[in-house]
Specification:
Layout lengths: L19 H4 L6 E3 L4 H11 L3 E5 L5 E6 H8 L2 H6 L19 H11 L3 E5 L5 E6 H10 L4
Parallel strand pairs: 1-2
Antiparallel strand pairs: 2-3, 4-5
Helix pairs in contact: 2-3, 5-6
């Protein structure tokens, strides 16, 4: 019998391998799509994070904005005060869902060149994020199904 560490995921459906739910992380940092670029930059810098999940007016996932994605707006100070996150070119759907196979999600992330992918429920509400590093790490140690 092999001991399990607290960080070892257990497949939710034996025999079907790991899912996105096994690998996703909770994300504390979110911002409304009508917030300004300046507000997003303040949160990114203050929290020391590289990305924020973006919510629409109903609280559903709108996408993900990164520090890199805001650089062109931050170069011009008056843009940051007037431009909302919803108007920026940021990562938008489709998003991952928790029951999606982790191997499939990792392939999709590689094809889309995504380091972070929002995970949503069937109604589009944010559940967490899947990171490229976490998916690759779990798939590297997962037994073949």
């Amino acid at each position: 019998m092999t001991p399990k560490s607290p960080h070892s995921p257990t497949p939710t459906r034996p025999g079907q391998g790991l899912t996105v739910a096994d690998a996703m992380d909770f994300c504390d940092y979110q911002i409304a799509d009508d917030s300004t670029v300046d507000q997003a930059n303040d949160i990114l810098r203050g929290a020391g994070v590289e990305y924020l999940l973006v919510r629409d007016h109903d609280g559903r996932c709108e996408g993900l904005v990164t520090r890199t994605g805001l650089h062109s707006f931050l170069a011009r100070s008056w843009y940051t005060e007037r431009t909302t996150i919803g108007l920026t070119a940021h990562q938008r759907g489709p998003f991952a869902w928790p029951t999606m196979g982790l191997a499939l999600a990792a392939v999709a992330m590689r094809i889309k060149h995504l380091a972070v992918w929002p995970v949503v429920d069937e109604d589009g509400y944010i559940l967490g994020v899947l990171t490229e590093d976490r998916a690759a790490g779990l798939l590297a140690v997962a037994p073949a199904a």
